[in-house]
Every structure is written in structure tokens, then in C-alpha cells.
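Title: Request for sanity check on Glutamine--fructose-6-phosphate aminotransferase [isomerizing] prediction

Description:
We are preparing a figure and want to confirm that the structure record we downloaded matches what your pipeline produces today. Could someone re-run it with the sequence below and paste the raw C-alpha cells into this thread? We only need the C-alpha cell string, no images.
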Amino acid sequence: DAVELGNYQHYMQKEIFEQPVALANTLEMLGSAATRSFSANLFGAAAPEALASTRSVLILACGTSYHSGLVARYWIEQLAGIPCSVEIASEYRYRVSVVDPDQLVVAISQSGETADTLAALKHAKTRGMTRTLAICNVAESAIVRECALRFLTRAGMEIGVASTKAFTTQLAALFLLAATLAKQQGRLAANDESECLTALRHLPLALKHVLELEPAIAAWAQDFAGKQHALFLGRGLHYPIALEGALKLKEISYIHAEGYPAGELKHGPLALVDESMPVISVAPNDNLLEKLKSNLQEVRARGGELYVFADADSAVEASAGVHILRLPEHYGLLSPVLHVVPLQLLSYHVALVKGTDVDKPRNLAKSVTVE
Ligand code: G6P
């Protein structure tokens, strides 16, 4: 392989640890720290005009890229105040949906070659939706060529089948898209714009601190290796992160895992909870923390063992059956970029304990170029 493993055991581990650099490289186009504003040109020369008249957004993607789209929906609706829907590409391409020629169609893809995402994009274009944007990690890819606008993430080559650094760089790109749309709508004050930039620029360092949790997460992984099932819970912005955590665990450790919005527990998954199913929870110190804590009590009351990723300032305490690891201070709207990292590390270490083929899990391909 052209990419060396260096001191790492697997590409996935290497790629998890490359995330601070991947983010810094992706954000380089924002200019130096002295630059306090950004322009829609980040998305291509035609972007200022195309984004100014955008009234709604449709995101198309598969797999992990779909999960970054789900996070983006929260950002776009909250910051820009315009509706955003997110669709699994293989569903959208065959569904009778409503055509809106003024909608911005965003295709998210690490490889730029995923057959369903490409077909969904072409389907949208055939139906007259030509305002298209690719968020992609490969410049010379089919999806980039197919779109009028583009934002290239600079994660570098990703080899591990389970996507990690492509995901966090997609999130950075999508946050910038939400902020740019907000600016175009006149909803982003100059000081908020400056704050967004500061938060983005500080991400690589914040992520480095999260990576220091690896030894503690590796210790937790021992508890998971013998399990058949796991449940991942999150709320709000972190619900898609719970979905991504579950996907990672499925992909590389072959443990059946489901991601759920914690408020839905009582509508089904609570029936599954007992001491043999670990429940992993993403618990940032946001406005939903108190709600989440009462959901977690419901799990404890049924004997479920809890593994909680909290923030330093989240008021959740360890007790019998409640294990807690803390990330640095709450990171506001960009918190999902940090909270996904411990879940990547957890699935990686569970797979190590189980001895599965981390970089090439059975039955899966890095890029799915046929339907
Ligand atoms: C495959 C890969 C996943 C990836 C998905 C979408 O399933 O194993 O890691 O998230 O395809 O790929 P894309 O290149 O379009 O992001």
C-alpha cells in the first residue's frame, strides 16, 4: 500500500488519530486566524448566487456519510432557518418525491463513487433540480464532476472500510455550509460568524484531547467483546452520533447494535434492556441533558449496564452499573464532531479484543460502486 501504517496496528486506528490533522487541512481554506469572516466562494465560484436564493436543502448519501447529513439537518434548520431533509440515496432514487427546482441538492460521499448516491443525484437533476453541491473527499470523482458546486474535504486517503476521518471532515464542511446559508439569510451576526470560525479552528486541538481517552476506552472494550447486542442512545444533535456509533460497532465487531433517540426508548427498545445488553449513551452538557438523564434512569431500573460519554461539566455521576468517561468542556453546536470519536475508538477496541479483520470487515467494501 502507498500509505504507510507507521506505528499503528491498523489503518482504522491511524485514521482515527489523523483526525486533528485532517480537520486542520480541511479548514485551511478559511485562511489565517486573523480572518474573521468567510465567503460562499468556499463552495465554488457559482456558490454566492446559488446559495443566496436557496430556500431549502435536500441531502443525499449512504452509510456514514448519511449520518453526517443527519447532523447537518440540525445545523441548517437551527442556524439558517431553512428546511432540510436527508435521504438515504438508495431510497430517494426510486421514490416518487416532490420536485423543487430551487432546492439545493447536497450529495455527501467520501469516495465520490457510491453508485446509489450518484444515481440519486442524477435522478434529482433529471427532474430539474440542478442546484447541486458535492461534499466529497476525492476531487476527480464522479459525484464531484456531476455537481455544479463542490467542497472538497481534505481527510487524505481513507483505507479502513469503516469511515472515520472522512466523517469528521464532512461535519466540518457541513457546519460551514449551515453557517454560510445562515449568513446569506441575514441570520448570522458578525460576532457570531467570528465565533463560528474560532470554534472551527479550535476543533483539531479539542479533538486531540478527546483522543487521550483511548486507554480508558480500551479498558471498557473488554466488557463488550462477549456481548451479542448493544444499544446506543443520544438526543438532538447527538442522535445521529448514536446511529454512527452503532454502525461502527456493527461494521467491525459484528455485534448487533442499534442507535436510538433516547426519548424513543419507551416505545420499544426498553423491552430488550437487561444485564446482557450494554447501553452506550452520548451525554453532552446541552439543553437535553436532564431529559437524557431520566431516560438513563429508565435503563438502570431495568438492570441495564450504562456506558456514558459525558462532558467535563455534565452533572452525571458514576455509580454501580453506571460507567462514565468525560470529554473536555461542552463544545456547543460542534460537539458531535468530538463525541463521535470515543465511539470510533470503542468499536475499534472491541474489534481488537474479538480479533476481527478491522480494516476489511467481512462482506463490506470501502466503496460500493455497483447497486
Ligand atoms: C460503504 C463504506 C462506508 C461508507 C459508505 C458510503 O458502505 O463501507 O464506510 O460510509 O459506503 O460511502 P461514500 O464513499 O459515499 O461516503
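Thanks, this matches our download. The chain is about 45% helix and 15% strand.
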